[in-house]
Amino acid sequence: MGINTDLRDLAVAVATEAAELVARRQREGVDVVATKSSAIDVVTAADEESELLIRGRLLAARPGDGFLGEEGGDQVSESGVTWVVDPIDGTVNFLYGIPQYAVSIAARDADGVVLAGAVVNAATGHLFAAALGVGATCTPSGGEPVQLRVRDSGDDARQWLVATGFGYVERVRAAQGAAVARLLPRVRDIRRAGAAALDLCALAAGQLDGYVEEGVKPWDWSAAGLVATEAGARLEVVAADDGREAVVAAPAATYDGFRTLVAEAGLVRPR
Ligand code: IPD
Fold first, then answer.
1. What ranges in 29-143 are assigned the alpha helix state H?
2. Is there an atom of ligand 1 within 6 Å of 165 CB?
3. Is the CB of 210 under 6 A from ligand 1?
4. Could you report the per-residue pLDDT of 12-56, keeping only the tens digit for each?
5. Burial of 169 (0-12, 13-18, 19+ CB in 10 A)
6. H or E stretch including 202?
7. Which atom of ligand 1 is found nearest the CA of 199?
8. What pLDDT is stored for residue 86 in this prediction?
9. Cα 2 to averaged position of ligand 1 atoms, centre (Å)
10. What pTM does this model have?
């Protein structure tokens, strides 16, 4: 077993435990404890509890590692490895009981290269896991792992199903909405499922032809981005306005066409 698979296995064990906690808290009732970038960008008690559990487990297993979590408590790495964690991606779905929210854990090296990742849909128990150079799998709750592979999308953009998402700040989402309105007539359809990590896992599973979103953070895309690239996608992080970043991902064979399409719609900067 190499280092990447060891990191993946730790990410899987901890994400699975945290997802069980998150699912239990959803059944018990969700408490909003704070807001972040705007009044609709909520933090729940379960976000904080899940992140504490994940941080504790990871740093107990590997004390010299760094930690970067959505809810704070960052730690600088001494080992070179940093864990990048979203304790609940899809918090609004979690709040409303829509079964699309996930725990996301990635390990990246000192150069920012993601080595391993695990994403668990806490509502359904689906586990997505990847290690760099080793491939990506999906394991349904109580089932066997299935190797993931992106779909053969073909060159005709009118046949592409595209996932995206929106930030929580009014001015930013107004621009995102206008860009999506330009994209919509040019593709098969748009999906907005509400959890960036699960969008990227869906791309890996061949359920989408592309994913693009401006304003996502490393904890949203690091683990699931590796799941997607190990399944045959190409993913780019593109600089956007005001220091924000956009993620563009599509099957490698059709990536260039997808990148051009979303730039023409104004979702990301052109190359
Ligand atoms: C959000 C989700 C959503 C995306 C937002 C993210 P959160 O993460 O991934 O799909 O559109 O950009 O902020 O806040 O639920 O962890």
1. 45-61, 91-96
2. yes
3. no
4. 999 999 999 999 999 998 788 888 888 888 788 999 999 999 999
5. middle
6. helix 196-204
7. 10
8. 97
9. 32
10. 0.96
